[in-house]
Amino acid sequence: MTTTAPETQTVRTYKAHAHPAWRRVLVTREAAVIALLAIVIVTAIASVPNFDSPLTVTYLLRDLAPILLIALPMTLIIITEEIDLSVASIVGLTSVMTGILTQAGWPFAIAAITAILVGTIAGCLNGFLVTVVGLPSLAVTIGTLALFRGIAVGLLGTTAITEFPEFWTDLAKDNIPGTPIPGIMVPFAVLAIAFALVLHFTPFGRSLYAIGLNKEAAAFSGIDVGRTKFLLFMVSGTVSGFAGVYFTLLYSNARGDNATGMELSVIAAVLLGGVSIFGGRGALHGVIAGVLLIGTLGSALRLAGVTSDIINVITGVLLVLSVVSASFLAWLRSRRISAIGRKKGRSSTAPEPI
Amino acid sequence: MFNHDRTRRHAGATFTALALGAALILTGCAAGGNGGGDDAGDGGGDANLAITFLPKNLGNPYFDTSNAGGEEAIEEFGGTFAEVGPSEASPTSQVTFIQTAAQQGVGGLVVSANDPEAICDALNEARDAGVKVVTFDSDTNADCRDLFINQATAEGIAKSQIDLISEQIGDEGQIAILSASANATNQNAWIELMEEELAANHPNIELVETVYGDDDDQTSFDKTAALLQTYPDLKGIISPTTVGIAAAARYLSTSEYKGQVALTGLGTPNQMREYVEDGTVTAFALWNPADLGYLAAYATKALIEGEITGEEGDSFEAGKLGEYEVGADGVVLLGDPFVFNADNIGDFDF
User: Fold this and answer.
1) Are A192 and A285 in contact (CB under 8 A)?
2) Which of A8, A170, B84, B199 is the 20 to 30 Å CA partner of B322?
3) What pLDDT does B29 receive?
4) Size of interface A-B (CB pairs under 8 A)
5) d(CA A196, CA A66)
6) Phi-psi region of A346 (alpha: psi -120 to 50; beta: other; left: phi over 0)
7) The whole model's pTM is what?
8) To probe the interface with B, which of A91, A162, A275 has the most B CB atoms within 10 Å?
9) Do strands B262-265 and B234-239 pair parallel, antiparallel, or not at all (unpaired)?
10) Which residues of B, range 233-262, sit inside 8 Å of A by Cβ?
11) What is the reported pLDDT for A25?
12) For every residue of chain A, which 3-state class applies, written as one string?
């Protein structure tokens, strides 16, 4: 009888804290962000004039597209406990490359592909410095943030290139026929599905979580940590390059200072979407909801006539709350764990009364 | 253990979601309140006289003054004034505000462009959506807007500088120019026109040298000192740049030349106030940003009501400023630069 008692108790503890599957799906950080997004949209439709217009959808998605695109690889990078701060500078660099090559008379498609390749190379440089040289990605990408931006501004100075073939600028701006949804959402959807499949349904994707949780353990279990990270930084460069070409076409404007500061918008949205800055946790649907949440909130507030500094304050508070809540949860968890530890300790040392 | 860990996290997440949700609903409601107000304003009259001012950036005293002028005009003709803008003046930062104005369906948008190209497409999309676009202070390409309200022409600026200095030194003697940088396009154009004006109408005034302070306060200060030492008979200095004139005034006000050597140029009232009050400077020029905003608002009204289309030769009434005519390329000229002196400087704060 005394031998079975602890086991029964463990099972009981286990059961008391286990929730049914539906609850585990619905009550997650990601679900919370999606719910919040829904609340914002419903509130805005109900109370902000002109919010429920097709134009709002078009403008919103069009302006968010570069952030949405770059957030995909950024999610994967942050899950492995790394970071890429150079993405917005890569956008600026590819924007300038697209402009210069187009101005030099290259066919636009070739110029764009070359520019995206430049983005890929920039990503490879990040990857090389992080994985081969072994430097922390925070330091590396702060450096390349300045480096790529410097090259971009240096190449074009303070001038801008604004002449692009109308076919391509229209393509970047046009909606999917018959809908208010910008055409850029098609390549985004394809990429998002690809990234989600890779992250959530392949061994490679699961290995990213393993790396983020414990790099050494991941390496011991046969994951090539270096190669994985290199690949992620490279993909980040490529996607940022694509976003750079899109940004250039959207504003018909190739400038060295394009997208300055966008890396912070991307990272903020990724963290809001439930990805842990300490790695090992996060999901793509949460990130997409995070980007849409910040964007929709900003758009609704602007339409309601709220000034941009107050919008910044509100988005800032939202972000701080999301980070604070994550730490608060971690603290709660650690308290629960130590409480259980104490309980376990007691049950094993003290004899059970019969 | 793993399972337990996750459940706690989920329960916590619910709490977080509720807290964030509450915060969001609150902000959402606040937003709704403001929005309702705007909407009520849009509804009045058959012409949509809701006009939004979009300066280069917010919190800039120059634009605070110009937008106050716009607001005054809009109140006069019974429209709705709104002011939006980015916190920093970067090229593409105005795009989202232009889009928002288009979404709101305002009647007119008055913009000072941070970049002649970057906001072009957004402005044209807004025009396609029925918004009349007027630029002021800083123009875009001519095909991206309906009108540009130009504060002053190079000829007007050059002539007013020469008129001011000749008045202050009695139309004879040596003068010098303290400019910004040697390759500043607008400065050089003004200097060239000033030289022409001197040659044509003021034969007794001799321009001895043009020096460059690079729009740097200390450099301008040092160049002023050097000028006064090199030319002991110097009667006056023209500094057609706000940094230069303030630095020169600072030097003069503490030197033996105070009240002896005249100083004029382009400056802002707030920078120059103490030097006008202590007698270092008698008069200087700039345009009146309040009038600029006022005229822009009336021009926008005329466009919205279909009184003008922006064609050359169109004319419209601009309240207290009188009648204006549209020039080539859809440009409306505010007029001669405005002269600030001890009598009127107290009326301005920018």
Assistant:
1) no
2) B84
3) 43
4) 185
5) 18
6) alpha
7) 0.74
8) A162
9) parallel
10) none
11) 64
12) CCCCHHHHHHHHHHHHHCCCHHHHHHCCHHHHHHHHHHHHHHHHHHHCCCCCCHHHHHHHHHHHHHHHHHHHHHHHHHHCCCCCCCHHHHHHHHHHHHHHHHHCCCCHHHHHHHHHHHHHHHHHHHHHHHHHCCCCHHHHHHHHHHHHHHHHHHHHCCCCECCCCHHHHHHHHCECCCCCCECCHHHHHHHHHHHHHHHHHCHHHHHHHHHHHCHHHHHHCCCCHHHHHHHHHHHHHHHHHHHHHHHHHHCCCECCCCCCCHHHHHHHHHHHCCCCCCCCCCCHHHHHHHHHHHHHHHHHHHHCCCCHHHHHHHHHHHHHHHHHHHHHHHHHHHHHHHHHHHHHHHHHHCCCCC
Closest residue in A to B97 (Cα–Cα): A302
Give me A54's structure tokens.
């097709």
Residue B205 token pair: 């005034």
- State which amino acid sits at residue B237: I
- Is B28 in contact with A43 (Cβ distance < 8 A)? yes
Sites in chain A below the pLDDT cut of 50 = 1-5, 347-354
By Cβ distance, the residue of A63, A252, A328 closest to B12 is: A328
Rounded Cα–Cα distance for residues A275 and A282 (Å): 4
Report the candidate in B60, B56, B104 with the shortest Cα–Cα distance to residue B80: B104
B185 touches chain A (CB under 8 A): no
Q: What is the distance between the alpha carbons of residues B180 and B43, in angstroms, rounded to a whole number?
A: 49
- How many C-beta atoms surround the C-beta of residue A278 within 10 A? 12
Task: Give the minimum alpha-carbon distance from A252 to chain B in angstroms, rounded to a whole number.
Answer: 7
For B37, name the nearest residue in chain A, comparing CA atoms only.
Answer: A304
How far off is chain B from A28, nearest CA to CA, in Å? Answer: 5
pLDDT digits (tens, 9 = 90+) for B102-158: 999 999 999 999 877 778 889 999 999 999 999 998 898 899 999 999 998 999 999
Dist CA B136 CA A320 (whole Å): 39
ipTM of the complex: 0.71
At B159 the pLDDT is 94
Residue whose C-alpha is closest to residue B78's, from B100, B47, B106, B55: B47
Task: Identify the segments of chain B with pLDDT beneath 70.
Answer: 1-45
A chain contacts of residue B82, beta-carbon cutoff 8 Å: 305
Structure token digits, residue A31: 């679900």
Q: Does B95 touch chain A (CB under 8 A)?
A: yes
Q: Check if B91 contacts A (Cβ < 8 Å).
A: yes
pLDDT at B58: 84
Contacts of A160 in chain B (CB under 8 A): 91, 115, 117-118
What are the structure tokens assigned to A10, written together?
A: 């463990």
For residue B46, with 0-12 CB atoms within 10 Å meaning exposed, 13-18 middle and 19 or more buried, which class applies? exposed
